[in-house]
Write a structure and sequence with these properties.
Elements (H helix, E strand, L loop, with lengths): L1 H60 L7 H30 L7 E4 H19 L2 E6 L3 E4 L1 H17 L6 E9 L2 E8 L21 H6 L6 H11 L3 E6 L5 E8 L1
Bound molecules: adenosine-5'-diphosphate (ADP).
Adenosine-5'-diphosphate (ADP) binds next to helix 4 and helix 6.
């Protein structure tokens, strides 16, 4: 009887092991699928500007292009734009791959950092007729100054880009219990509910042609998400009660 109990326990243990191996394999294969999808998207996105540049260059090199001044200017403008897009994409991909290696032990004055971002984005806001307001408490967070600057910059840049003329962008920072909360609220287009979580996926865009026309490459929020993650924070996106969108980042300090 003791022997058969022992056997039974062994079988149970083996079954449990097999269930947890299966779970692990499932998680691994999910992770590979995410990686595969990312690589496929990256290759696809990098190919489009390259192919467009190649067509223009081929037509020049084979002498088919009439080469009038207006054509030359147009072609060079187009190749330059595509080149800018590619450089932006490659730079962001590299930034994402290097996130883990950046030091994250600086004490950052949040209001000064927000003021710096707002000053740097003021020319874009003026061009788009959007008003920027900073509303930050006198607080600090510990992290990477350069990465937190990038995080706030990307959120505010989007809040301006996806806004209407005459719109508003408000950046607030305040303490909420043991957390520091940083929020960027805009009065722009808003994001449809079913797509809200997807905006953090690399290369995802609600409106691809609008993003492209605004010089976007679909990696800004993916980088924001990773910066929040390496700082052990969390990020949420919700509709702004007065129209538009609110991105809220929480840091436990
Ligand atoms: P992009 O380079 O296209 O701006 P992002 O990763 O920064 O890429 O953003 C992904 C998509 O999320 C954008 O293309 C846009 O459709 C949407 N989005 C981001 N921020 C906002 C916002 N503040 N209001 C409305 N839509 C936004």
């Amino acid at each position: 009887l003791a022997d058969s109990r022992l056997e039974e326990n062994k079988v149970k243990e083996l079954n449990q092991l097999s269930v947890s191996y299966n779970k692990m394999l499932g998680r691994l294969s999910d992770a590979f699928e995410v990686q595969r999808q990312f690589t496929a998207n990256a290759a696809h996105e990098l190919r489009t500007p390259l192919a467009l540049m190649q067509v223009q260059l081929d037509s020049y090199n084979s002498g088919q292009h009439p080469g009038s001044d207006a054509d030359t200017v147009q072609t060079i403008k187009m190749v330059t734009e595509q080149n800018d897009r590619l450089s932006k994409m490659v730079k962001t991909l590299l930034d994402m791959s290097e996130l883990q290696t950046v030091g994250r032990d600086e004490t950052i004055m949040v209001d000064a950092l927000v003021d710096e971002v707002l000053a740097d984005l003021e020319p874009l806001a003026r061009e788009k007729h959007v008003e920027l307001t900073g509303n930050c408490e006198d607080i600090t967070i510990v992290g990477s100054d350069i990465l937190i600057y990038r995080l706030v910059y990307n959120l505010v840049e989007n809040a301006i880009k996806y806004n209407h003329p005459g719109g508003q962008v408000t950046v607030s920072a305040f303490r909420k219990e043991k957390c520091v909360c940083l929020s960027v609220a805009d009065t722009g287009n808003g994001i449809p509910e079913e797509l809200r979580e997807r905006v953090f996926e690399p290369f995802f865009r609600v409106d691809k042609s609008r993003s492209r026309a605004l010089g976007g490459v679909g990696l800004g929020l993916a980088l924001v998400y990773e910066i929040v993650r390496v700082h052990d924070g969390s990020i949420t996106v919700r509709p702004n009660p007065s129209g538009g969108t609110v991105f809220e980042v929480m840091f436990t300090q």
